[in-house]
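S1.2 Input.
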Amino acid sequence: MGSLRRKTATKPLPGNASLITKKGEQLAQWTDRRGKRKTAPTIIGRDGLPRIVVQSGRWLAKFRDGDGILREVSTGCKDKGAAQAVLAGLERRAELIRSNVITATENAIADHAVAAIADHFDAYRQHRITQGLNRTRIRNTQSRLERLAKECGFHRLIDLSGDTLTRWLAEQLSVGMGAGTRNEYRAEMVAFANWCIRSGRLASNPFNDVPRANAKADPRRKRRALTEAELDRLLHVACFRPLAEYGRETQSVEAETVSKPKRSNWTQKPLTYDGLEAAVTLARERLAGNPEFVSKLEERGRERALVYRTLILTGLRRGELASLTIGSIELDSPTPFARLAAGDEKNRRGSDIPLRADLASELRNWIEDRRNDFDGSFAEFNALPLLSVPASLVKVLNRDLAAAGISKTDDRGRVVDVHAMRMTLATMLNKAGIAPRTAQEIMRHSDIRLTMETYTDAKMLDVSEALDSLPSLTRKADRREPVRPTAKDQNALRKFPPLFPPKAGHQGQKESFPVNSGGDLRSRSNGSRPVEKCSKPTEKALSDGVSDKALKVGAKGLEPSTSAWRTQRSPS
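S1.3 Output.
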C-alpha cells in the first residue's frame, strides 16, 4: 500500500526571525517580504545554530512499481485528496504491469507524459550536444521549441497536439511569417517528437499530419548570382575599402532642429567605385605618419578579398569557412584541398574541398606571411583560423556592394547576400557546361534539383545563344527559288523608271542566309561574347572558367551532343 508525504528541508533563520516556545516546541516567527507573518519549527544544525524546517508545497507518492521496486515520485498536487487520486492511479498501473495487461514501455511512456516539457527539452539539447552538432544550431532549436511550448500551451508531453500546432502556424501566416520560417518551426517540433519516440517518451508523433507550407509559392528571400563584371568590382572594392574609409571627403549638412545641441555640421561622403582610387591616395597622405596602421588596413583588405574568393570558388558556407584552420589546408598534395570536419559541415559528413591552383597559391602566400609574423609553436600556428570571417559578414558585404555600385536588390526583388556567393558558383558551373552530377558533387548537395534549380540563376544563362547554336531545320522543299520576271514584265518595267534612283557607291543586300546551316551542335555561329572587365583590376580574374579541370569538359549544357540533326525522310 502506497503512502504520501511532503518533503522537508532546512534553511537558515531569516534576519528578522525571533524564537518562541509553544507547547514545549521551539518555533521561529518572522515577517516575509509581503508583510505576512510566518511560523516554522526549528532544529539545531550541524554548526550548532538553529535552522527553520520548511515543507514542500506538493505531495510525494511512495509505492512499488510493476517490477516490485520501491519508488517515490512527485504527484504535482498541493491538495492531499488530489495526491491520493494520483497515487491510486500509479498503483493501478503497477498492478496492470504485473498482470501483463500493459508493458513496461507503455508504463514508461505514461510516466514521461506527465513530466514537465522543459525537462524533455533539456534532455533533447544534451542529446544534440553529444551528437556534435553546431552550438548555434542547437541554440536556435532550443529557442524555437521554447517559443512553441509557450505560445501553444505545451506544458507536458501529453499536451502535444498536431491541431494546436496547425492553428499556430495559421496565425503566423496571418501576421506575415514566411513559408520557409513556418516550415522550420514545424520541422523542429517534428524532429523533437521523433526523438521522444526513439527514447521511449512517446508512442507516436502527433505532428506527422501537420501540413508543410509551399515555400516556392511564398519565397521571402530570393537570391541572385553575381556576374563576372560585378565580381571584379566587388573584389577590387573589398581589397581597398578598409584603407579608403580613412580618405573619404567631407560634406556639410543642415542641422535637424535648432533646439538640439549642435554636434557637427559635416559628414563623410559615401565611397564610390570611381572615387575609390582618390580616397586611397588621400588616406595614405593622412596616415603618412602611421605606416604600421596603413599596413594593417591593407592586410585587412587583402584578407577580405580572399574570403570572398574562397567562398565563391569553393562553395563553402560562411560558418564552414570560419571553422577552417591553417592545419586543415593541404597544399602539398597533387590536388590541394581543405579538410572540412564533420562537426563543422551542414550535413555532418565531413568533406575534402578541392582548391583551384590559383586560389591554393594565394592561400599559400597568405599562410607564409602569417607564419613569418607568428612567434608560437608549430601546433599553435596550425590551430589558428585560416581566415578571419566575422559573424556579421553580411553587413561588411553590404558596404562593399554599395561602394562597388552593385545593387543589393535587383528589379525582380532578388538580393545579394553571403549565401548568394554559393549560388554564384553553381551558376558559373552551369554556364561553363559542367555536367550536372559533377556540379552537384562540388556543391555537396544531396539532391541534384537543389543544384540545377534552387542554386542556379536562370536569368544569367544565355538562352538565346543556346538557341542560335541549333542547326537550321528548314526543309529543301520549303526553300523556294526566286521568281524570275518574264519578258512581258521586263517591258512593263521599262515604261516606269524608279522614283528614287540609287546613289553612287551604294549597294543593296545581295542575298540572305540562315544563321547556322546545320552540322555539329558544338559549332558556334557568333563565337563567345565579350565580357565586361573592371577598368582598374587589382585582383587576378576569377576565371575564364570555374576550375582547371572543369574547363576541359566543354560547354555542352544539359543535353548530350550529337554529330548532326537528321532531316532526311525515311525511304517509305
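S1.4 Remarks. The chain has three domains: 3-102, 103-220, 300-472+518-566.
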